[in-house]
């Protein structure tokens, strides 16, 4: 059996060897479009009956994580 040498990757390298800056704009646009709760079925079923539940639902917003 042949041994395979694999070079370690830095946190900025991709599997193809490309390097990326810490640009979070692409990540931000993905989370802005993501449905609350992870999928559209869940998002459609999430409703709040009072202010406390509304606050809880806000914590599920992918583009606005809690502090």
Number of helices: 3
Main pleated-sheet profile: none
How far do the termini sit from each other? 51 Å
H/E element sequence: HHH
| Whole-angstrom Rg | 19 Å
Structural class: mainly alpha
Task: Give the overall form.
Answer: elongated
Strand portion, in percent? under 5%
Helical content band: 25-40%
**pLDDT < 50 runs, ≥5 residues:** none
Q: Could you tell me the number of beta strands?
A: 0
Mean residue pLDDT: 69
Give a verbal description of the structure:
The chain is mainly alpha-helical. It has three helices and no strands. It is elongated, with a radius of gyration of 19 Å. The mean pLDDT is 69. Residues 41-54 have a biased composition (Acidic residues). Residues 31-40 have a biased composition (Low complexity). Residues 1-67 are annotated as: Disordered.
Short description:
This protein has 3 helices and no strands. It has 67 residues and is mainly α. The N and C termini lie far apart (51 Å).
Q: Which key phrases capture this entry?
A:
single chain, mainly alpha, 3 helices, 34% helix
Topology summary:
Blueprint: H1 25-33, H2 40-45, H3 51-58
């Amino acid at each position: 059996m042949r041994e395979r040498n694999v070079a370690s990757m830095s946190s900025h390298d991709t599997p193809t060897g490309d390097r990326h800056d810490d640009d979070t704009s692409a990540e931000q646009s993905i989370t802005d479009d993501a449905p609350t709760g992870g999928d559209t079925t869940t998002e459609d079923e999430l409703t709040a009956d009072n202010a406390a539940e509304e606050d809880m639902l806000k914590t599920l917003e992918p583009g606005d994580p809690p502090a």
